[in-house]
Amino acid sequence: MSRLPGWLNGLGDALHRMGERLDARRAAAERDDQLSPPYLAPDANHTSSSGASTAGNGSAEPAGAGTDKSAPGDAGPQPAGAAAKSGDSVPAPPAYAPAVAARPDPVVALPWGIRVAAEAGWRLLVLAGTLWVLMKVISTIELVVLAFVAALLITAVLQPTVTRLRRVGLPHGLATAVTAVTGFVLMGLMGWFVVWQVMDNIDNLSDRVRDGIEELKRWLLDSPFHVTEQQINDIAKNLSDTIGANTEQITSAGLQGVTVVVEALTGILLAMFCTLFLLYDGKKVWQWTLKLVPAQARPGVAGAGPRAWRTLTAYVRGTVLVALIDAIFIGVGIYFLGVPLAVPLAVFIFLFAFIPLVGAVVSGALAVVVALVTNGVFTALMVLVVVLAVQQIEGHVLQPFILGRAVRVHPLAVVLAVACGGLIAGIGGAVVAVPLVAVTNTVVGYLRAYSHEQALRASPEPRGATAHGVAFTAAPGTVSRDD
């Protein structure tokens, strides 16, 4: 028990010395924090100060004692363990280290033209994919689409009659029924008349064709082309062999023709049904369609719709009138020249006139061929002169005067539209292509003018002398605000 007080005194002295050492280290750390550069982390300074060794007598050595005595500029790389002991801090690079430029953003590194091309490219890819899917859907329901488009064209022709009958005093339903029935009966009579004329003159036409072929053969033998009779017989034999070898294909084509006739009858009935309801409830159908348009774009589309309908109506009326004039003049010309089937040929010219450019060429060539095989070369040349004269009058006088500015499409756009429409949907696509381009041109022009006017209305009103210079003025050919 006599040694216990001495042991307690020794423990107290040891704790006292330990406290003094901790106070000395804390004071050294605070002093190093005050003297250290601002870019050094506190953890690094604390590490350097806490690494100072203490003397054996219990007093703290000065900071930096026991450290490397090398020159300040020769600071070497720290060991890996030093960084771990210093709290995972990274020391500042030395002054002589070369500056490393930061890598630029890839968007900034690319040239402006490449960025614009890339932005436009992926948008065009999305648009092309959308159009591809749309065309696949349309090709799947091609019969329905063509029937509805035909109903729109027929409605554009018959709608003015419904309006006139309602002005006279007929109820809306009765006026629609009278107009639709009359129009369908007239179109049916036209088709029946063509079939009747062809069937009634088929025997006479076959005899005339046989005589015309013999006359054409004699003309080729006497012509300066030096065609021999053996060559003509070889051509006829090759044609006969080709027909005999392809009998199966011809039979298959006949069966496909039956399918085409059934589809055509279905399309005609569907077009008649759609026409009847478009004549009766066309306004309600348009109002329901507007509900599918987003609210922000609805005012512009609501204004573009009536203008598109007026363009379509003007196109159909003008085309019908021009086709009727062509059919009458060419039909009268080939009738006085003694060409058989003059009336059916005139009807074919009227129908093919709805296909711009291509229809006139095909119908005119058909009339020339019939004149050639029935009445000889001279009559065929005279028919060609009549066809070309009427078509020149149509292109330079009738279309500009009748259609006017209502439908103004560049000839290049007409050719490309007819070609694309024919490749996509055949004859129906070629008929629909040009009115579709005309309506699209009208809609785009109106929406551009409408957006420009809305932008001017949203901008602050000008003041002073510049107000007149920036005031809204309608461009030539555009609609006014109150239209």
Automatic annotation (TrEMBL):
Record's compositionally biased regions (Basic and acidic residues): 25-34
Transmembrane regions listed in the UniProt entry: 174-195, 260-280, 314-336, 342-362, 369-393, 413-439
Membrane-topology annotation of the record: Multi-pass membrane protein
Region called Disordered, residue ranges: 25-89
Primary subcellular site in the record, as a coarse category: membrane
Keywords for this protein: Cell membrane, Membrane, Transmembrane, Transmembrane helix, Transport
One family name in Pfam for this protein: AI-2E_transport
Protein's UniProt keywords contain S-adenosyl-L-methionine: no
Comp. bias intervals (Low complexity): 44-60, 72-84
Cell compartment(s), UniProt: Cell membrane
Superkingdom in the source lineage: Bacteria
Keyword Transport: yes
InterPro entries cross-referenced by the UniProt entry: AI-2E-like
Similarity comment text for this entry: Belongs to the autoinducer-2 exporter (AI-2E) (TC 2.A.86) family.
Entry protein name: AI-2E family transporter
Record organism: Streptomyces solicathayae
Taxonomic classification: Bacteria, Bacillati, Actinomycetota, Actinomycetes, Kitasatosporales
